[in-house]
Design a protein that fits this description.
By secondary structure, this protein is mostly helical. The chain has one domain. The protein has 7 helices and 2 strands, in the order ααββααααα. The chain has a two-stranded antiparallel sheet with strand order 1-2. A hairpin with a 2-residue loop joins strand 1 and strand 2.
Length: 168
């Protein structure tokens, strides 16, 4: 059974969440280093050809573009971290347990995803069907709260109103 694109995207975000703080710090340091080094003070012009247009670029322009690209990556990482954190805060305790074991802690365990899923199922004493329904709810929440498009026909009717209900 092949996973749908939105599920892959949601899982990718969950896996990435663990490393986002380090990525953010690394980008901040790279930007600081680049600014300390600054552009080359010796004029160095290069002929740039794109789509038949010729233009001259300087080391200062290249420096500016590089800084802007790193700042954009930094901003995207911060936004992704905030979006994922918000989605995790919306999880029920059961969903949170699965998220923590499968995505946060699970990747440090030397086990395949199938083995990891089975360990969680055995530990919780729930059926496979219940486990995969919870996992789908986690991915749906991540997708909806992080702006990943989910086709309407893949949103089960029962989730539409109850996806974000917390336990009482």
């Amino acid at each position: 059974m092949e996973k749908v694109d939105w599920k892959w995207e949601a899982e990718k975000l969950l896996r990435r969440y663990k490393s986002l703080p380090a990525e953010i710090v690394s980008l901040q340091l790279q930007i600081r280093l680049a600014k300390l080094a600054g552009p080359s003070i010796t004029p160095q012009y290069k002929l740039r050809v794109s789509s038949g247009n010729y233009s001259i670029t300087s080391s200062t322009e290249n420096y500016t573009f590089a800084i802007e690209a790193m700042q954009e990556r930094l901003e995207r990482a911060k936004i992704n971290r905030a979006l994922i954190k918000n989605a995790i805060e919306e999880m029920t305790s059961e969903e949170l347990f699965i998220y923590e074991r499968r995505y946060r802690d699970g990747f440090s365990v030397k086990a395949t995803m199938v083995e990891l899923d089975q360990k969680i199922i055995d530990y919780r004493g729930i059926s496979e069907a219940s486990y995969y329904r919870l996992q789908d709810r986690i991915l749906m929440k991540i997708a909806l709260l992080c702006g990943i498009d989910v086709p309407e026909d893949e949103k089960p009717e029962t989730w539409r109103g109850e996806l974000f209900k917390k336990e009482g």
